[in-house]
């Protein structure tokens, strides 16, 4: 029987590339998003990950049709930017609703199915920003840091059921994510580095890794016999993450600050 994978945020960017790759590898692919379309070997399911009931029904649809869910790639997410002081609380909450609680909703829906079969793979798309918090992208960084914490704790909770949990931390990736970012310039008269910092970050993204490369890393994380809890995608970003561990926190944080001034 074909293995079954659910990929959230699969209508574009990394998620779409991952859906196409898993389909090529022979998986039955179910792509959850609000705007995708079924194509070739990929079945689109309308689903807003922030709607818990909608997520449950979408997962039940897959389980009823296939009888199994072998892999979850929790990829849905978006970014906001702006100064912490001037970010509206509702915008910060929305960032977490999608990036963290959206992931949580899907995980909670697939776990009973995976537990019943004593096997499963859960892979989160996190970010290097989870360990190297980026100024003026504070809430995005915080949401991805929360994903890492969730992945690490969940990994220990579900290990006895034959389920593995991994988070992949990409650095800069060239996708439509950049253009879709919800940018706020509120307070720019106070935080005079903000526009320049966000522009520098987006320039790095536009020249970053491809969606196809990230899709391959997600696939590898989902298919390794004994995957690590956390992976960093991209050689230079692996170096950054290692340095962050080795250097005093004051120094590593100061260096990140220098990059965005």
Task: Tell me what the structure shows.
The protein is an alpha/beta fold and about 260 residues long. The chain has a single domain, classed as NAD(P)-binding Rossmann-like Domain (Rossmann fold), CATH 3.40.50. The protein is about 50% helix and about 15% strand. The chain has nine helices and nine strands. Helix 1 links the parallel strand 1 and strand 2. The protein is globular. The mean pLDDT is about 95.
Please sum up the structure shown.
The chain has 261 residues and is α/β, with parallel strands linked by helices. The chain has helices at residues 13-24, 52-66, 89-117, 138-158, 177-180, 194-206, 211-223, 235-246, 249-259; strands at residues 4-8, 28-33, 42-46, 71-74, 80-81, 120-125, 163-170, 182-183, 230-233.
Q: Taking Cα atoms only, what radius of gyration do you get, to the nearest Å?
A: 18 Å
Q: Runs with pLDDT <50, length 5+?
A: none
Number of domains: 1
CATH topology: Rossmann fold
Share of residues in strands: 15-25%
User: What sort of overall outline do the alpha carbons produce when their principal axes are compared?
Assistant: globular
Class based on secondary structure composition and strand pairing: alpha/beta
Could you describe the largest sheet, including whether it forms a barrel? 7 strands, parallel
Terminal CA distance reads 54 Å
Write the layout of secondary structure elements.
Layout: E1 4-8, H1 13-24, E2 28-33, E3 42-46, H2 52-66, E4 71-74, E5 80-81, H3 89-117, E6 120-125, H4 138-158, E7 163-170, H5 177-180, E8 182-183, H6 194-206, H7 211-223, E9 230-233, H8 235-246, H9 249-259
Parallel strand pairs: 1-2, 1-4, 2-3, 4-6, 5-8, 6-7, 7-9
Helix pairs in contact: 1-7, 2-3, 3-4
């Amino acid at each position: 029987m074909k293995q079954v994978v659910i990929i959230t945020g699969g209508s574009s960017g990394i998620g779409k590339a991952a859906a196409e790759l898993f389909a090529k590898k022979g998986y039955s692919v179910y792509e959850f998003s609000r705007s995708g379309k079924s194509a070739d070997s990929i079945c689109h399911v309308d689903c807003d990950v922030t709607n818990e009931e909608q997520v449950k029904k979408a997962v039940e649809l897959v389980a009823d049709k296939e009888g199994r869910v072998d892999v979850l790639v929790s990829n849905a997410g978006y970014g906001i930017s702006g100064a912490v002081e001037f970010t509206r609380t509702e915008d910060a909450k929305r960032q977490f609703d999608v990036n963290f609680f959206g992931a949580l909703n899907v995980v909670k829906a697939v776990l009973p199915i995976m537990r019943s079969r004593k096997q499963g793979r859960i892979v989160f798309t996190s970010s290097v920003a989870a360990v190297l918090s980026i100024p003026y992208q504070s809430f995005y960084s915080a949401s991805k840091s929360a994903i890492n914490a969730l992945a690490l704790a969940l990994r220990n909770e579900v290990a006895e059921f034959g389920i593995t949990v991994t988070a992949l931390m990409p650095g800069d990736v060239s996708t439509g994510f950049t253009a879709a970012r919800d940018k706020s310039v509120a307070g720019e008269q106070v935080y005079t580095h903000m526009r320049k910092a966000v522009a520098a970050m987006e320039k790095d993204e536009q020249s970053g890794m491809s969606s196809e490369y990230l899709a391959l890393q997600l696939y590898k994380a989902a298919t390794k016999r004994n995957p690590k809890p956390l992976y960093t995608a991209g050689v230079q970003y692996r170096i950054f993450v290692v340095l962050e561990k080795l250097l005093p926190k004051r120094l590593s944080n100061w260096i990140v600050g220098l990059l965005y001034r």
